[in-house]
Specification:
Layout (H helix, E strand, L loop, with lengths): L2 H4 L8 H7 L11 H9 L10 H18 L2 H8 L24 E5 L10 E8 L14 H19 L7 E4 L12 E8 L3 H8 L3 H4 L1
Antiparallel strand pairs: 1-2, 2-4, 3-4
Length: 209
């Protein structure tokens, strides 16, 4: 299992995580696009996994980051999220998620799951709360419609014809989130042009001021 598995984990390990840590990279099977589609359609998000070596590095990095900054939230607010957001609790420009561009930040995921080549993993951070069901921890129907509309306008339309077949998104249930204090959704894009990826993730002036 390696040294990382013998230490106290920096976040609760799922049964899938424990299984991954028992494998080598050579034994690991990458998630392909069709499998990801099935996972997202059935909301079976707990089976998403990282490559064994990536998971070990992620655990080590998380432990070191928490030791230095006190929490993952603090690290993200210092290094990744817009300076204009200030401190939590945030004061969004709009109470509707993704309605105002200054209320969200699109970034490539630093620690993506283990996907086959050609799949980009993006995280969209939001300073507006995305309502979830308090019982299940999953999104409300209204929230799902709001996010669907945003993904369609921001990602799918940017790709052009056939874009709907190259974009998928999900929001982890509360229990699966490694960073629970900051709202975010995951967007997966297949075979995207690097220039378009750079356009989606560029920092705007309203993120800095």
């Amino acid at each position: 299992m390696g040294d990382a598995g013998a230490e106290e984990p920096p976040f609760p390990l799922t049964e899938v995580d424990k299984w991954v840590l028992s494998q080598t990279d050579e034994e690991y099977r990458y998630h392909d696009w069709e499998e990801l589609r099935q996972i997202i359609e059935t909301n079976n998000l707990s089976v998403l996994k990282r490559k064994p070596s990536d998971l070990r590095r992620y655990m080590k990095w998380t432990a070191e980051t928490k030791a230095q900054y006190g929490s993952m939230t603090k690290y993200l607010m210092v290094h990744r999220l817009p300076k204009s957001w200030g401190a939590t609790p945030f004061q969004p420009a709009s109470v509707i998620p993704f309605q105002d561009p200054s209320d969200y930040r699109v970034l490539v995921n630093d620690w993506p799951y283990g996907f086959t080549q050609g799949i980009s993993h993006i995280v969209v951070w939001s300073r507006t709360i995305i309502p979830t069901d308090p019982e299940s921890g999953d999104m409300t129907p209204e929230s799902r419609k709001t996010v669907e509309s945003f993904v369609e306008s921001y990602f799918v339309k940017s790709i052009g014809p056939g874009g709907e077949h190259r974009v998928m998104w999900f929001k982890n249930w509360v229990a699966l989130q490694s960073v629970r204090n900051l709202e975010h959704i995951h967007v997966l894009v297949k075979d995207v042009d690097p220039a378009l990826l750079a356009e989606w993730t560029k920092e705007e002036e309203y993120h800095r001021r």
